[in-house]
Amino acid sequence: MAISDWPAAERPREKLVQRGAEALSDAELLAIFLRTGIVGKSAVDLARELLGRFGGLNHLIAASESEFCAVPGMGPAKYVQLQAVVELARRALGEKLVRGDVFNSPNAVRHYLQLKLRPLGHEVFVAIFLDAQNRLIASEDLFRGTLTQTSVFPREVVKRALFHNAAAIIFAHNHPSGVAEASQADEHLTRALKQALDLVEVRVLDHFVVGADQIFSFAEHRLL
What we know:
By secondary structure, this protein is an alpha+beta fold. It has helices at about 10-20, 25-35, 45-55, 55-60, 65-70, 75-100, 105-115, 155-165, 185-200, and strands at about 125-130, 135-145, 170-175, 205-210, 215. Strands 2-1-3-4-5 form a 5-stranded mixed beta sheet, with helices on both faces. Helix 2 (about 25-35) crosses helix 3 (about 45-55) and helix 6 runs antiparallel to helix 7.
């Protein structure tokens, strides 16, 4: 049955207008993005197939163009549109962080890091540099590693903090394996970075580990 034949209250677009985007399922939101289905499948059916094939939104967003376009009904135009939507969301969250105290918007920080790091298939170590009022100065990808390890040099981190005249810093890195847990190596690294930055009076406010579905905070677990 075509979506146009559904009761009005069950159609994704009408449901969004009446109840807000948060009331829609992942498949319904994706169906609005897709706009149309294919022969024998509504947009919602196609959205469910995409989510099932890739194992959820995270893996769908992270899919390569060739993987995405291998799904019947998908193509380069849809792939580009999806990546553009994700990048717009990432930039909107970045703007929110720039406008005020980062810790007045803790969820914005988490969502920004998840959008930035979660889809990546390689490990990246990020530093968010803040001024004395915890306002965002800059966010930089400092180091990039393999699927299993990243080499992070405290000396280089200190150089970048001094370059930005930062008063505080938040670290983050992703675990491409999907597990949002701090390893013993992560704890050792964080301590080494904190000790190095203490010497130049730059505070380490947190270190986030971004997994597939969760994000781990060193500060929340009292590891700083």
